[in-house]
Amino acid sequence: MTSARKKISAAPSWLGLSEDRQSFLFIPERAEVVRRIFELAIGGMGSYAIANYLDARKIPPFTQSDSWDHTTIDYMLRNRATYGEYQPKSFAGGHTKGIPQGPPVNDYYPAVIDKQTFERAQTARRQNLASRGRKGSDLANIFAGLTTCGYCGNEVVLHRVANLQVLACEKVLDGNGCSRTAWTYRDFEVTVFAFLTHPALLERLQGARRNKLLTLVDKVADLLNKQEQHYATRVEIALLLKQIVTQLVLHSAGAIESPRLPSAQISKDVRGRFLEIRLWDGRLDKYRSVL
Question: Which of 115, 149, 144 is nearest to 131 (CA)?
Fold first, then answer.
């Protein structure tokens, strides 16, 4: 990047200037943060969750603010400058955001990510993989996007019954049938962790998948033993899960579905409940509640 015609003042926040002020250079620590933000987005995290994660990890914002703002994250994820594109704009007439002038210029900036990564992030955002509860200070459901109902195949989502968080079939919550049973979230999370941290599973996996599982085991241990970075650890576990597990199928009423009236109360933690776990190796395992 050595052209003197470049508009140096338009440099994104992760780029600096060369000594002769004629080209752009990465600010290394900021470039890594941008790449991490895209990784989190592709993993299904929303802008609120990403901002909370960065704050939990005490990663300094690119502005004078003391904390990350979700609008900054959202803008960065939409910014085509991340893969090098520059859109000339006119600010005549007091337009603060500018009006596009002419076609965009490719390879204007050094690319901090490639275009494929950018497009994958846009796809993830459109699919709205961030589950309910991710705007707060805790990641309520680390299994979002992985859980389905073993009876009807619909998505299983986080729901609150009285003072408990449970996982229940969407059809149940919509009053459209299926088994009116649910699995309390804490029980389900403990059960999945028990399966994934079992030594026998490590013996089955090889290569990169095994390494990711080892990392997951360490993160689960951190979650149980440490409190100061609770949120950030849950985010990292959620991302690792999507790289190890492809599907979690809940049979919250056990082997035989128990049809009930749409007005019936939702039963929680029915005896005999189990889940089927499909890993990236293609194998499907059945595992019963450990509580």
Answer: 144
Q: Which of 34, 37, 36, 9 is nearest to 21 (CA)?
A: 9
Residue 259 phi, psi dihedral angles, 5° rounding = -60, 135
Domain containing 206: what range?
147-279
Token couple for 193: 């962790």
Q: Are 34 and 59 in contact (CB under 8 A)?
A: no
Of 100, 110, 189, nearest in space to 147 by CA: 189
64-109 per-position pLDDT tens digit? 999 999 999 999 999 999 999 998 887 777 666 778 888 989 999 9
Q: Give me the pLDDT at residue 3, please.
A: 45
Chosen domain end from 96, 130, 164: 130
CATH number at residue 98: 3.90.1750.20
**Helix runs in the chain, H state only:** 28-42, 47-56, 70-78, 115-126, 170-173, 185-196, 199-204, 207-225, 230-244
Residues 34 and 76 in one domain: yes
pTM of the full structure: 0.70
CA distance 184 to 273: 11
Please give the distance of CA 157 from its chain centroid, rounded to a whole number.
Answer: 15
3 in any annotated domain: no
Which pLDDT belongs to residue 130?
A: 39
Helix, strand, or coil here: 92?
helix
Looking at the fold, whether 102 and 199 belong to one and the same domain comes out as no
User: Is residue 8, in this structure, part of any structural domain at all?
Assistant: no
Q: Could you state, in chain order, the average pLDDT of each consecutive group of 10 residues for the chain (291 residues)?
A: 52 86 89 94 84 91 92 94 89 73 90 94 69 50 89 90 87 84 92 91 85 90 74 86 91 76 78 91 83 65
Residue 41 belongs to a domain: yes
